[in-house]
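We emphasize that the prediction below concerns an isolated chain of 185 residues; any contacts that depend on oligomerization or on bound cofactors are therefore not represented. The input was used exactly as deposited, without trimming of termini.
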Amino acid sequence: MLETIFKELNTGIEKASAMLSRDLSKIRTGRATAGMLDSIRVDYYGVPTPIHQMATVSVPEPRLITVKPWERGQIKAIEKALRDSDLGLTPQSDGDLIRISIPALTEDRRREMVKLTKKFGEESKVAIRKYSRDANEMIEQLGSDEQISEDDAVQARKKIEDFVAEGNKKIIELIAAKEKEILAV
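Result of the prediction step, given as a token string:
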């Protein structure tokens, strides 16, 4: 029974870390990444479609993204979606290929990105605390139903604390790495 609780807790912590990684990948740094365009949808024959499902997105240089649509007729639609996005990008097309130059971030913008990174990290820590609270409540319930001994309950709570500490450590490492990437000029 305790193993099931630990497994659920571990799964929850992994979900929180994965969500943080996904959120952090969308935060713009000074470098170009193909993941920056993941949230942009293009009207493809009436269906909002992610760019990577209708074009090849590549990063040939640190400050340049290229988008090569599989259908030439979709260049205008992709360009429009890029301009209308909240990323503040200016696409340039030569008929076959769309080039997106990524301008360097200002110091103020970098600080805003760091704040956003910390906000995402705090949300992940809150999620981990929720999973921890749920696991502790389940152990308390098992103890009150006398399905486990008091000693087993104390050991289980200690193990939960260890899982949470490890999860928080991973969150802190992810945030620190992203901050370093954002602040690198």
